[in-house]
Structure formats: C-alpha cells, structure tokens
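Renewal narrative, Specific Aim 1. Our central claim is that a sequence can be written position by position from structural information alone. The example that follows is taken directly from our test logs and has not been curated for this report. It begins with the structure tokens describing the chain, in the order in which they were read.
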C-alpha cells in the first residue's frame, strides 16, 4: 500500500552537508512528462494502464529510451525492446508540444526551498535526465525575478551519459562540477530510481512525495521523505544536517 506518511530514515548519521543537487521533473516543476508518456502509449497499449504508480516505479527519473523499454515491459507489450525507440520518439514529440503550450508550472515550495538554500550560500546543481529540463526552467521565475535556471552553479541536465539512473553517474558529475565531495551533497528527488542513484553515489537522499508515494521513496533508501520542501528545517541545513522541522 502506498501512503504519503512522512518518513525518517538515516539522516541523523549523515556527514555534514555542503551542497544540494536537484532533480527537475516532479521536484522543481509539475511537468507534463507523465501525461506525455501516457498519451504516447496509444497503439502500443491502453494508455490508462500507465498508472501513476507504474510511471513512478518504472519510468520516472530514467533516460528516455530506458523508461520507454521499462514501461512496455511492465505492461507486457510484445517485443518491447524493438518497440521502445518508437515509443520514446512519440513521447518526445508529445512532450515538446506540451511544453510549447506552457503545460507546466513550478512548485511554490520548491522555489522557496531553492531560494532558502541559496541564501545559506550552499552551492546547487540541477541534474535531470530530461533533455527538456532547461527549456522549462528558463522561463520559470524565482521570487527575485531571476530565472530558475540561473539559481544553479552547475547544470548537468540532459547530458549524454553512459548510464542513467539508478546509476549515480549524473549526480557524481554534478558534485564534481560543484567541487564538493559526493558524501557532502544532498540530492532532492521524487522518483525511486533517483533516490537509489543518490544512495549509490554516497550522497544524502531527500525524497519529495508529491504523489502519495512516500513508501516507495522510503523503500528506495531515502534519508528523509517529505510531502513539501517547506517541511525541511533550513536552519539545521545551514549546519549541514538534513532533518524535518521540529526534530
């Protein structure tokens, strides 16, 4: 059973945290990726079979082709390996159309959290597998009027990497470009694959359960799971600790 109950895990034993790495889709922005994957499924399988739970566990956070293959395999589509490239391409065309139509928005709590982390002087990186992440962040504005894209000292979104999440390559690259050792970074993620990638890279993992999936993020190994980034104790974060307010 998936619940959205707040979860604590191992945050008390973490090293001092000095930098933040942010996924984009589902963390910073309410993007139309899940919608695009579902609508692109027509002709491969019944679109309604791609539930939010299946999307979160099989697709979210992964490179496009890996996500397409995983979705088709999970749905029992014959010859999924061969059909995955066509499904991935159809999804890409659909997401581009939705982005062009402005079918996305920023999460207000995420903008507040980015602003608060920046005010602490902690370096931040954006790290999404999506090649559409920058296109959505550029027009999104922080309360100061700056572009969300400009809030990050490093940006590795959409890079062509050898391995996708749950491999930690993208997060290790982000930490390298920030000049901070992985064990002193926290990663903000909404997908189990992203949480697993953070943990595999030796980083702290902050799960954001916006879809009633706290149990999935906990099972993936998140150090702290919240339903809103407003729940994170920013004062404690200034001391390098990742905990919930009131702890």
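The sequence written for that structure reads:
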């Amino acid at each position: 059973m998936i619940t959205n109950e707040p979860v604590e895990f191992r945050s008390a034993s973490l090293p001092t945290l000095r930098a933040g790495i942010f996924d984009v889709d589902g963390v910073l922005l309410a993007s139309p990726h899940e919608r695009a994957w579902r609508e692109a499924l027509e002709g491969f399988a019944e679109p309604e079979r791609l539930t939010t739970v299946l999307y979160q566990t099989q697709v979210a956070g992964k490179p496009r082709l890996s996500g397409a293959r995983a979705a088709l395999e999970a749905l029992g589509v014959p010859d999924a390996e061969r059909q995955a490239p066509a499904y991935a391409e159809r999804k890409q065309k659909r997401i581009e159309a939705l982005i062009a139509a402005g079918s996305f928005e920023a999460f207000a709590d995420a903008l507040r959290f980015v602003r608060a982390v920046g005010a602490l002087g902690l370096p931040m990186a954006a790290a999404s597998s999506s090649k559409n992440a920058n296109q959505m962040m550029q027009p999104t504005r922080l309360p100061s009027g700056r572009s969300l894209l400009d809030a990050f000292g490093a940006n590795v979104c959409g890079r062509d990497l050898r391995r996708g999440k749950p491999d930690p390559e993208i997060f290790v690259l982000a930490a390298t470009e920030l000049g901070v050792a992985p064990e002193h970074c926290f990663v903000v993620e909404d997908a189990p694959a992203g949480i697993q990638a953070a943990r595999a890279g030796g980083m702290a993992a902050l799960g954001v359960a916006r879809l009633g999936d706290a149990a999935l993020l906990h099972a993936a190994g998140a150090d702290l799971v919240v339903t809103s980034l407003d729940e994170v104790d920013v004062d404690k974060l200034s001391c390098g600790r990742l905990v919930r307010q009131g702890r």
